[in-house]
Structure formats: structure tokens, C-alpha cells
Hints:
Blueprint: E1 2-4, E2 13-19, H1 23-31, E3 39-45, E4 52-56, E5 59-63, H2 65-68, E6 71-75
Antiparallel strand pairs: 1-6, 2-3, 2-6, 3-4, 4-5
Amino acid sequence: xxxxxxxxxxxxxxxxxxxxxxxxxxxxxxxxxxxxxxxxxxxxxxxxxxxxxxxxxxxxxxxxxxxxxxxxxxxxxxxx
Length: 80
């Protein structure tokens, strides 16, 4: 199932399929390691949902909700 990073719930993991945006914003995301094929784990959300803290490529990264909306991921199903 595909959804954007801002729609993730705490504890969900997904594989980046697409990064939207233009110019500086897209370049900034790529520079931070937010690229197709990377696995992302949502660690925390601020009380109002902005910002989000994720683990990507072995480090913690904080993203604004507006940036998270640009990242489309395939949700990895959790095993029960």
C-alpha cells in the first residue's frame, strides 16, 4: 500500500518509492538521504503533527510535515 510519509503512524516502516517537489526542496531531501529505495521508520510526531522524526540510513532525521508530504512510500506490513 502506498502513502505519503505525513500519513504514517508512529512505528510504521516503509520503502521510499518516489520523492516529489522541485528545485531546492527536492535537492535538500536528496542531500539528507531521502532517496528512492531507502527504508524509513517513523519514530515520533510532534503533538500537532509537525515536525516528524524518522530513522533513515541509520540516523535520525527531523522533517517538516510539508516535506514529508512529498515522500511516497510503500508500507511494510508488520508481522503479528
